[in-house]
Amino acid sequence: MAERSGRQVSRRWVVSAGTIFLAGAGTAAFGATRPRDGDGAAPSRGPSPASPIPTTPAIDRIAQARTRIEAYVERYDGHLAVAARDRQGKAAVTVGTRRFETASVVKVNILAALLLRQSPQGRALSAGTRRLAEAMIVSSDNDAAVALWQRIDGSRGLAAANRALGLRETKPSSHWGTTTTTADDQLRLLTALTSPTGPLTPQDRAFIMGLMKKVIPEQRWGVTAARASDTRSSYVKNGWDTADVDGGHWLVNSIGRIVEARHDWLIAVLSDHHVSQKEGIRVVEKAATYALKELRAATAGDGAS
Questions:
Q1: How large a percentage of the chain has pLDDT more than 90?
Q2: CA angle, 118 as apex, 112 and 123 as ends, to 5°?
Q3: CATH no. for residue 79?
Q4: Under a CB-based contact definition with an 8 Å cutoff, are residues 243 and 272 in contact?
Q5: pLDDT tens digits in sequence order for the chain, 305 residues long
Q6: Structural domain for 126, as ranges
Q7: What number of CA atoms fall less than 13 Å from residue 294's CA on the CB side?
Q8: Measured between alpha carbons, how far is residue 6 from residues 18, 19, 20, 62 in Å?
Q9: Within-domain flag for 175
């Protein structure tokens, strides 16, 4: 009986406590609009604190484009590298850090080194040297490249010039065509050749770009395949050769510039291990076209004029 009596008391206490709790809750519920008599509290008229509005993080479209370009390049298992940058905006991407042999794309580097050696800097080249420079870039003449390579003191002169040009990953060789470089360093070279704050004079920059714009039709493949319908001008220098160290497979490279209504693209595509030059050109052109397509789409809403 004592145990049962204890349970009854406990149950009544629980019921009473619940009643008190509900009464208190009711008072609290109405307390905001009906103060108790005599407490002098004014009715609360301010709004209740608003819950924070959830926000969606801004989409980094350049990062998304980079991810897709990386996936594209990875299919080639280290035999392809792409770098591109818009001089009119912030879009930039580099995929692939491997060094490739330059073949004839180094001829642009040789010409920049030659111009940096002029004293005073910016002095016009002699007529004979100018003809060699034009042949080296416009028709990729190898004899002209050999002559100018000697005039810049070969690999030593190229290394000195590259320090001024801001290149960090280009390693000159005793033979100009086997110099090695990265896509990112070729982008640095193109930046130095187009930037008003670069080491070259405006006249020298215009001279190099002018020659790259005049490359003969049969050599205007490569990054120029990425031209858009609103492209205003394009500049290119390509390099191609077979590599004995790669079983005679082809290396095919292309660097250049594509100026459009809303963009000014600098782009470099390096590649090797191709069964033919034709196959290498196809890979380079598809990579350049894909990279700029992704970057254009990523910047389509930027509102640039």
A1: 76
A2: 105
A3: 3.40.710.10
A4: yes
A5: 443 434 343 433 333 334 333 334 333 333 333 334 344 444 445 555 555 555 545 579 999 999 999 999 999 999 999 999 999 998 999 999 999 999 999 999 999 999 999 988 888 999 999 999 999 999 999 999 999 999 999 999 999 999 999 999 999 999 999 999 999 999 999 999 999 999 999 999 999 999 999 999 999 999 999 999 999 999 999 999 999 889 999 999 999 999 999 999 999 999 999 999 999 999 999 999 999 999 999 999 775 43
A6: 61-298
A7: 25
A8: 18, 20, 21, 73
A9: yes
**Per-residue pLDDT tens digits for 4-62:** 434 343 433 333 334 333 334 333 333 333 334 344 444 445 555 555 555 545 579 99
**Residue 77 within a domain:** yes
How far, in Å, CA of 102 to CA of 98, rounded?
12
Total domains, the chain: 1
Distances (CA, A) of 257 to 92, 162, 168, 223: 14, 20, 21, 8
The first and second tokens of residue 238, run together, are: 């390509």
Answer whether residue 182 is part of any domain: yes
- Whether 263 and 298 have beta carbons less than 8 Å apart is answered as no
Q: Which residues contact 174 (CB under 8 A, 6 or more apart)?
A: 154, 155
What is the distance between the alpha carbons of residues 255 and 187, in angstroms, rounded to a whole number? 8
26 inside domain: no
